[in-house]
Amino acid sequence: MKKIISASLLSAGVIAILPAQASAFNDVSMYEKEIQYLSEAGVIKGFEDGQFKPASSLNRLQAIQMILREMDVTDFSAADPDFTDVNAGDYGYEEIAKAVDLGIISGKTDIDGNSYFDPYGPLTRGQMAKILSEAYELDQEWRYFFNDVSHEHWAKDYIDRIASDVITTGYEDQTFRPENDIERQHFALFMARMLNDDFITGTELQNISFMMDQDKEYVFEEILEDETITYTLSFAGHTHVKDNDWEVWAQKFEGGDHKDLLYVEADNRLYSGWLGSEYFPRLDYPIYDGKEWSYTYGSESTHQILDTDATITTRAGTFEHVVVQEDLVSNQIQYYAPNVGLIKSEFGEERDDLNISTELVEVREASDVIADNPVQTELNPTEFETIEEIDGKAVIGELKDPGVVPAPSIDTVEVTIIVEEYFGDYESMNDTGLLFIKNNEPRKGVWIGLKHPEENLEALTTYLQKKVDAGEIPFDSVHIYYTPFTQDDLRERTRLVSDEVQKIASQHEGAGSIVSTDYNNGEIIVEHNFLNEVDQKKLQSSFPQYSIRFERIGTQIPDDDSQRIVWPDSLVTNDLTLNGHYIIKVEEDSFLTAQAGAIAGEHFDAVNWSFTGASEHLEIGQRVKVEDSGFVFTSYPEQATAVIVNILPTYLPQSADKTEAQVVRELIQKESFSDFAIKTISDIAFNEPADEWTITVVNSMDDAVVEMVIAD
């Protein structure tokens, strides 16, 4: 944790918390010690009437005045910041100019591109995070999760920086509220915590994120009885599902097969699952020792936290502050490391008959597919060759056989560090080009793409040749090639298009999308289930500089809401076919279905569907087939968004007065079908001589079969 005590406080001898004294202000009741601490140090002054006005909003000028006082700045000479709303001679001009000169603030920009400062505008909590991070050069040690701070929020990194120093722990509901105006008492509290650890009451582990690092690649080994499976997880983009922005991670198996996994922290939970399939809640926040929680439909606990500060070693290394959790249903023990996620899972002693486990075996810098761009330079341990160049661009030529590359277990982090050292740091490398490390044919080796090779080619090749000859790069081939894109270029264009896609997605219930970039040609790929032709043309016209390819996934969401319910040509049928699902519960904007024709003792599907206006259009007892958005949260019942509801014809025997739907509705009104043990119809038959219906009911918890009779 980085703490900076400025010269002004040190010279005044103000380091520890001062003994309790009469408050300098007559209206302070909360954070008295912190406010007194800053008052004694001359950081805060209050108002002429002796008040501090603790609950009032702090304006932007007041914030920088407090920071500059704490820094003991006396020389206010600085260049004019050229803000349109602050001129020389104005109150606060010198402080604003000095704050810009010191890099603490940068101001705002209006729609015409003019810079302004807005000195009397309120400072938001997000802006507070930025100016404190910049003023005191705070480091980000951890990444955090707040329900209202997405990974794309402009202040995300700054909030992580002040949370790493425990300057903030957010609110009890795990929100940070970055757009709220910051109160004067809270700004004083944050400054006091930053300057003196004695004011800190929380820990840096509060609100810690258990999501993986997008700049890393994770290698897992999974044992399934006699079979061992190795796969890697690497970040592949984002997709918008159920009002949340999910991270997409490519799960790549040995042999070339791959799947797309989704991860998100939302609604106080960590979720993961497969794209277009099922999703599970993995952790429930806040995390504390002994906590029990449930992801099933009911109140019975399914998980328990056994430890929150374990030290666990896997082949990938030693991890601290690990959360140990037991799945009470399966007896599986799971280990989650902060900023990494799952590092290990195994079955407890009660299931020692199962040889099933998962282990994180390696963490390395992210790599990706090599673009088919012209190769400019090839290095190897015995030979250096520059391929002929024409007009500053390399000619595409045959690559030499790259030879045998060490197995994927080679620590590629070392290679990344070597390349980073040349550029200065990881961010500068991403701003210059691309770095990939390939462990598979046909292009094994280290690949470095440069957007402006004329600036770095000669010096970089000389630097790398020395590293290769010294044996510091454990690959037989290192290639430097021309790329028209840098890593930052590709990330930025993906973000810009993704933002616009999500604006359209917010207008459609059940909308889902994935936006990614083809590293070969820079083409943007938008996979979706809601964009019509007009939407696609608007998106393309908004980004004429990019090529955008649209691919549909799942069921296309209808433009007209009336098309979301499809009725059959004939509402009744004389033939009974127990397909589809029965609607067993209907609420205003949701309905619950259970699989028709289920067999006792076997698992049957049950899904809680989000569907706007469900109570106006659907009825208990109807049999339906539902087309979903392709994104399903696994619990029991599962959670999903219905895109189209197909009403199936209801069974009506020739001599019966009631339909199948009416009989099922009458039964459900007498007997609840949606308790913890969800029930459904296994069979239904009409007894004409007795003029009655016999319904066979099964439930999700046991093998019990119950027959019920409803008079016709």
From TrEMBL:
InterPro entries: Cell_Envelope_Struct_Comp, SLH_dom. This is S-layer homology domain-containing protein. Residues 1-22 form the signal peptide. The keyword Transcription does not apply. PROSITE patterns: SLH (PS51272). Residues 18-77, 79-146, 147-205 form the SLH domain. Keywords: Signal. Pfam families: SLH (PF00395).
